[in-house]
Amino acid sequence: MPPSAPAPTNPALAGIAPTDRHLLRALAQNFGLVLSWAVLVLAILIYCAIYYGQLGTLPGNFEITSTVNNTMPLVLSGLGQTIVILTRGLDLSVGGIIDLTNALAALYLGDTLQSAILGSIAILGVGALLGFVNGALVAFGRLQPIVVTIATLSIYQGLAIMILPQPGGTIPPEFSALLVNSGAPWALLYCVAFGLLWMMLRRSRLGVSIYAVGNDPAAATANGISLIRTRLAAYVLSGVASAGAGLFLAASSTAGDATTGNGYTLTSIVAVVLGGVSLFGGRGSGIGAIAGALLTTMIVNILFFAQIDPLYQSFYEGLFLVLAVVLTMAVGRLVKRRRR
After folding, report:
1. Angstrom distance (rounded) from CA 339 to CA 241
2. Cα→Cα distances 48→38, 54, 225, 271, 308, Å
């Protein structure tokens, strides 16, 4: 006779089939990701209800397209922030990199789609270089990430203002249409592409190293993983993602502004937290960060159509963030307790 399944240690699971127990364990392991998407769906429903209550109709193509296009810089900056946070780091220079690459895009993308694509590749290279500077100071210099990236944030912002003292420049219309087409929410395809790229990264040797370093640096080193190379690569990828955010921001506004990226330093962290990524490293997913970025934008939309005074919007955004973190921790502990 085949051996019977081992009895669960938790009496609450005694009457649950083995398949259901495995499903419960999988849910606990990916709880932050599942919760982030569930809350996003709830936020969309609330937004639609408030919008319908105010205007007597549901959001149309224009509203959906604007929301998606406005979220794309946050999606990319959140993905970059996720990679760094998974290694127990923090990148506060995100806003500065966006400012600098946004300014470069407004001045040097040229007038044609071909020149814009070539210029974009160069700007992504600049983002990688800026990320390398952060990573080198953290990995080789053994400096605290928060100190390093606060310093480089000021440096990158200063360089951005030197390059573009006043808002201006031009973005080729074909390039704007390629990234943020105003006729339909085609930018959602980029979200899908970024999700697929994340899955590839997660299964790559670098992705395994990033999670290993975040979970236990000593154990990662004992298994032959280089802390220096992994942390350096994480900051480089964050720089590239932030540069991509700067390009999306420039394409959306069709011009450059050396100060528009300032708010993304904080909101990228908000998107990461709302996406179920642990600030202590080693746990979370970039796919959750994408949901967190969309959720952050939906919260702003909800507050706007609920006619909340703009002076108090920051208060409510912070309140939603605290509630999300507390809810995630409370339900996560409950699920973990029941799966034992």
Report:
1. 36
2. 16, 10, 48, 21, 16
Could you read off the pLDDT tens digit of each residue along the chain, which spans 340 residues? 445 445 445 554 455 555 555 665 666 566 777 888 888 999 999 999 999 988 889 998 999 999 999 999 999 999 999 999 999 999 999 999 999 999 999 999 988 899 999 999 999 999 999 999 999 999 998 899 999 999 999 999 999 999 999 998 889 999 999 999 888 889 999 999 999 999 999 999 999 999 999 999 999 999 999 999 999 999 999 999 999 999 999 999 888 889 988 889 988 998 998 888 888 888 889 999 999 999 999 988 888 888 887 777 778 777 776 776 676 666 656 655 655 5
Cβ atoms of 249 and 51 closer than 8 Å: no
What structural domains does the chain harbor?
18-339 (1.10.3470)
Q: Which of 122, 116, 127 shows the shortest CA–CA distance to 160? A: 127
- 60-81 per-residue burial string, b: 16 or more CB within 10 A, e: under 16: eeebebbbbbbbbbbbbbbbbb
Structure tokens given for 79 = 């993905």
- Distance, in Å, from the CA atom of 182 to the CA atom of 296, rounded to the nearest integer, reads 21
Separation CA 299–CA 284 (nearest Å)? 21
DSSP letter (8 states) at residue 13: G
pTM over cut 0.85: yes
- d(CA 14, CA 26) in angstroms, rounded, equals 18
Distance, in Å, from the CA atom of 13 to the CA atom of 7, rounded to the nearest integer, reads 9
Instruction: Determine the Cα–Cα distance for residues 308 and 128; give it in Å rounded to an integer.
Output: 39
Q: Where are the beta strands (DSSP E) in the chain?
A: none
